[in-house]
Design goal:
18 strands, five-stranded antiparallel sheet
Length: 361
Amino acid sequence: MSFNTFGKIFRFTTWGESHGPAIGCVVDGCPPNVSINEADIQKELNKRKPGQSKFTTQRKEDDKVNILSGVFEGKTTGTPISMIIYNKDMRSRDYETIKNKFRPGHADFTYFKKYGIRDYRGGGRQSARETASRVAAGAIAKKVLEKKIGKKYNVKGAVTQLGILGCDIKKWDDKFISKNPFFCPDKSILKLWEKYLLSIRKAGSSCGAIIEVRARGVPVGLGAPIYSKLDMDLASAMMSINAVKGVNIGSGMNSAQLTGEQNSDEISQTGNKTKFVSNNAGGILGGISSGQEITVSFAVKPTSSILTSRKTIDRFGKNTSISVKGRHDPCVGIRAVPIGEAMMHCVLLDHYLMHNAQCNS
């Protein structure tokens, strides 16, 4: 399997399977002399780890990270940073009954057709378990950007829609997002979301979600006009996350419904300060950051592993049916929030380093 590496200057390579002994990643291109320790990385991993509430999978993993290389006396050395996370709570037997069947809506079918073999235990490499490694890489990127840009740099993600239920993003509250298991930004909708998702879980089904990630304090000039647009790389990053089926930058698909007057983000200048009246562009113009808040949203499909019986085929080409038991997220989109934040950090650092290399700034 090729293409396990993401990024150009700041790069990370992930490895491991859902039910293997461990997962991990190697980060390359990280600048030296950046303060980092395992607690910094663990803080981000704790947002994503399973089994934290009744609304996510009940698989219990500490997701404890160990740094194996690239850090000396609490600072990065500029050499590859290798990290490992051991898997501890695997129940491979849960997959014995479906090891020869393909879950509809899942990558089981395409993986087997492409490679002629697949690790059916928890989905193997195609499992969202892989994303813990991305979050570890993102934690490092975050620390670098905080050092380079300063305290004004901040990235915050939230679930803005759970299944058929949206929320009022005008009520976005950073502090509330961090205090509830849904990463919900709107206090007024939380109780309804809880009731809705519990009914979905009780029915043995699943639902999708929309996640929005906002980056503040990003300097003007990151990105390139043609083949390395900042929004292009952000879209690629978010689309690489398991179960993501669509990405919007700023107004995104809704831009098609706007007039030129409505879509234009008018600009004014007061002294040395540039002000935009609106932000339909999502903080990116012509592939280059404008200095505004960067907003990216992405849609996550419903979890494919559901109790409801569905028609499918097996590896031998015979028609059959499948019902998936075990521990699965009724909405995998909830735990996608810290993953989206991590990918935002990684892309922004990659472009920050490329910008400095070209423009000597």
